[in-house]
Specification:
By secondary structure, the protein is of the alpha+beta class. It has 11 helices and 11 strands. The strands form 3 sheets. It has a 5-stranded antiparallel β-sheet, with no helix packed on it. Strands 7-6-11 form a 3-stranded mixed β-sheet, with helices on one face. The protein has a 3-stranded antiparallel β-sheet with strand order 8-9-10. A hairpin with a 2-residue loop joins strand 2 and strand 3.
Length: about 550
């Protein structure tokens, strides 16, 4: 008898990789549980078979005996794949190639729904292939915990000695709002303006690209030129290094229309938003790779710094070695409760972001289409009746059949009303660029940010599980006290880092949504005030008759 499982979250499978697309609340027959690396082989109600992520499913009542529910309480929001495709900015020329042995193939280390987002789905060859109805070559897309060295760090198995430079030490401090990343000190906050997109070329014009000018506020004399591929390189470095820090994806790539002015402006705006997110983080903004990216103007020094960042050993779980948390130990039960609460928050916010983005998208289309047409249709109907009024003649004995001035003024007022409604239709079509589209871009950015948290939640969940298992082994006298306590201390570093990042995210969310809502409502008020002014002007024409 096969195990039956209920799907907890939507998953868009890739048929080419042997995956099965599943939807929430769908019931599956689990054919094999030994595929490995967090995958099961399943069959849906239509008889279609494929691989599904174990963490997305939970056993249902009436399944085979002895099988415990494998479902995870960790939410896995739907994700939007970044567009794949051939792009000149992925064509790393000779000057950009890494040295032999440099980590140019980072594999599945992107942040997203357990590492599933499209931009980093580069399957490594030579992985283990399981036999059966379907097969798959992969290296665990879900094992962010193991891949980043989390298990080795917790258990003290990572014995490699690393030099921790003083300027890379990170402190977490207690505050009234809970654990927070310590401010770097001084006036550390700064901005970095992205301007002047310029089409450039090389190889005698055979390759073209758009370069942007970056100017950090801490030194306005610095101006560096960066291409999208350079931003992509920085994203890979940051997401690899900071396992427990939110590093949102870059704006989407695009295969066609890369040099159209509208696309360049939208991309630059997206890069500016991303850059603002990075400069506002007290850890990311101070790291060597980021500072090098925004301030290095010398080509030779750029290459030196680039290779240094690529050879950085303090990445993933190794970065945790640089963190000094508060001295206060944490209660596992309390940490687990907070973990579950934030996981619920992430799922709820993700679901609501999907709804509000769709709502704004549909509203934008209505403004630019149906609303515009409807108001213009009303205006045209007023114009039609005004044309009829112009035929007004008055039978008189003396032969002068001109209408009285009141009639002429009425006709003109009706004409003006028709034009007013046509203008209002144009207002509706033009308004989205002032409020709906900017707010939609803001929502898309935050949706991307919230989708970085499932990996972090999963990492922290494994940490909690490891601590609980060590405590159990200590109680069963299978692990000595000192060893279990050292695991607990390292787990506290993970938990404090997770808390600090959650608190930073929530503080930024409050500030960002306040600003975004103020901007949106301000533009809405201006819009309706303009509409009201137009209508009041039209009304005045009739009152003057």
């Amino acid at each position: 008898m096969h195990l039956r499982a209920r799907v907890m979250y939507d998953f868009d499978g890739e048929a080419a990789n042997g995956e099965l697309t599943i939807k929430e609340d769908e019931v599956l027959n689990i054919l094999r549980q030994d595929v490995g690396d967090g995958w099961w082989e399943a069959e849906n109600s239509q008889g279609v078979k494929g691989l599904v992520p174990q963490a997305y499913c939970e056993a249902v009542d009436g399944t085979q005996d002895g099988v415990s529910s494998p479902g995870s309480s960790v939410p896995s929001p739907s994700y939007d794949d970044r567009q794949d495709g051939v792009d000149e900015e992925w064509d790393y020329d000779e000057e950009w190639d890494g040295e032999p042995g440099s980590p140019t193939d980072s594999g599945l280390n992107g942040q997203g729904n357990y590492g599933l987002h499209g931009a980093n789905r580069h399957m490594k060859r030579g992985g283990e292939v399981k036999t059966g109805t379907v097969s798959k070559t992969f290296k665990s897309r879900f094992s962010v915990f193991a891949k980043s060295g989390g298990e080795a760090y917790l258990l003290g198995a990572d014995t490699k000695k690393r030099h921790i430079p003083a300027n890379t030490e990170v402190r977490i401090v207690e505050s009234d709002e809970g654990p927070m990343w310590e401010d770097p000190g001084g006036d550390w906050r700064f901005t970095c303006e992205i301007t002047n997109p310029k089409k450039e070329s090389k190889l005698k014009g055979m390759k073209s690209f758009i370069a942007y000018q970056l100017t950090p506020s801490f030194n306005t004399g610095i101006r560096v030129s960066r291409r999208y591929k350079h931003f992509d390189w920085l994203y890979e470095r940051l997401s690899e290094k900071f396992t427990l820090i939110c590093v949102p994806q870059l704006p989407d790539k695009q295969v066609t229309g890369r040099y159209e002015e509208s696309f360049i402006e939208r991309r630059m705006d997206g890069l500016q938003r991303w850059m603002a997110r990075m400069t506002s983080h007290p850890i990311i903004s101070q790291c060597d790779a980021f500072q090098h990216f925004i301030s290095c103007t010398d080509e030779k020094q750029w290459k030196v710094g680039k290779r240094k960042a690529e050879k950085d050993e303090l990445v993933g779980a190794a970065f945790l070695q640089t963190i000094t948390p508060p001295d206060t130990g944490l209660e596992v039960a309390h940490v687990e409760t907070q973990h579950d609460n934030f996981a619920k928050f992430v799922k709820s916010m993700n679901d609501s972001m999907v709804v509000i983005q769709q709502t704004f998208h549909e509203s934008r289309k209505r403004h630019m289409g149906p609303f515009k047409r409807e108001y213009q249709k009303v205006g045209q109907s007023f114009n039609a009746i005004a044309e009829s009024f112009e035929i007004d003649t008055r039978p008189r004995v003396n032969g002068n059949d001109a209408p009285p001035q009141e009639s002429v003024r009425l006709t003109d007022a009706v004409k003006n009303t028709g034009k007013t409604y046509e203008d209002i239709g144009l207002f509706f079509a033009q308004q989205p660029s002032k409020d709906l589209i900017p707010f939609e871009d803001f929502l898309r950015e935050y949706h991307g940010m919230i989708q970085t948290f499932p990996d972090m939640i999963q990492f922290h969940k494994h940490t909690i599980s490891t601590v609980k298992e060590c405590q159990k082994q200590r109680e069963d006298q299978k692990m000595d006290f000192e060893e279990a306590e050292s695991v607990k201390q390292r787990a506290d570093v993970v938990s404090y880092a997770m808390m600090a990042e959650i608190n930073h995210f929530q503080d930024e969310r409050v500030r960002n949504f306040k600003e975004a809502m103020e901007g949106f409502l301000t533009e809405q008020i201006k819009f309706y005030q303009n509409v009201t002014a137009k209508l009041e002007d039209a009304l005045g024409k009739f009152q003057d008759i």
